[in-house]
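On clarity, I found the account of how folds are encoded harder to follow than it need be. What matters is that the chain and its backbone geometry are given together, residue for residue. The format is easy to grasp once an entry is in front of the reader. For illustration, here is how one protein appears when written out as sequence plus structure tokens.
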Amino acid sequence: MGRAGTVGAVSGTSDLRIGVGVLGCGNVGSALVNLVAEQGPAIAERTGLILDVVKVAVRSASRDRDVTLADGVLTTDAAAVVNDPQVDVVVELIGGIEPARELVAGALKQGKPVVTGNKELLANYGAELYAAADAAGVDLLFEAAVAGGIPLIRALRESLAAEPVRRVMGIVNGTTNFILSQMSESGADYHDALADAQSLGYAERDPTADVEGFDAAAKASIIATVAFGARVLAGSVYREGISAVSPADIAHAHRLGYVVKLLAIAEQVGGAPGKPELAVRVHPAMVPADHPLASVRDSFNAVFVEGEAVGELMLYGRGAGGRPTASAVLGDLIDAAGNRCRGTWTPIGDLAEAVVCPIDDLESEYYINMEVLDRPGVLAAVAGVFGRHGVSIRSMEQEGLGDQARLVFITHEATERAVQATLGELRDLEAVRGVPGLLRVVGR
């Protein structure tokens, strides 16, 4: 391991050089290399570790990058980085499933710790990679995979390791939070707010992964796995995006004392020891205006943790961006390097078999916005449908629209199954012109 020094160097008695191999040198990878150079002296002074970036793998060696590398460091052969005997710790920042999965598994098999920011990989193959890391007795650390620069995973794995966590709920996608903030604050419609996000670099040209909730769902699966010690795959996370949220929904929410946010939620709803029943989902929701998450605006992220003993905690900060994310990667890199020197690691532990509760069985309050003909008997007919499905109405507003009316309901808690059945029957009523808005109410 490394090329000089002793294990005692970790406590500051002498210096230990650690060879670092980086896979990928995009926004985060280049920011990491620059941070290692900038912070290297301070890291050495505090830990005795000298982080030496000896290899960086890229897809194209001719592309301009905002980073200065010594001759011979850059390569297009990612496998050569993993196999290089001068590389002690591998940092994977290329994203996607393959070849990342093969490269990470190969590094772990060689007994090399891995730091990754790859949410897609961990959301789909995390369990097997965690097991491979434990079998090899090395770290697999992934702080940057969920909330950029926010130290959420370390808090869940270490600070809250003995805390019975009840629920983790948060804003984990900066693109959608920026769009919803624009819609809330300037009255922009969805398409205009998305265009603003793209022009500022917050959204990709193809924004599907963000706006349809795929990115947040992958993060929710990782959060659930770590918070509850149970395997949760991305495919088992219920997912809705924000593309159907209208300015009318935003306005109604404000008038009723709520803010609309895209939330990732993971909570334990039942089960037995060793087989917890979890509810894991991503969807837009109405959050009370006085809830801490309601004030999180622009592209920031925040995660709200509820535990039995600790009560309520919230972590807030930049959830994306090269330097904030690279900061999280660097923190993991220092931990992995130090643990390697000490011959130890931070295991994730045995993962239980989770039962993921279907969305139909979950209970929530609901906001329902519907348009009907404005004539006698319609409200009674609508109320009758709610009653037949056991959905109790907490509040109702009516707004005239010429010969039509808009009805806005907030329900008491009801199951998703009952609410969807209610909506199905409502849409069949001759007097109902549409049900354009449905949001779950969370955090009351």
Notes: Confidence is low (pLDDT under 50) at residues 1-13. The longest strand covers residues 258-272.
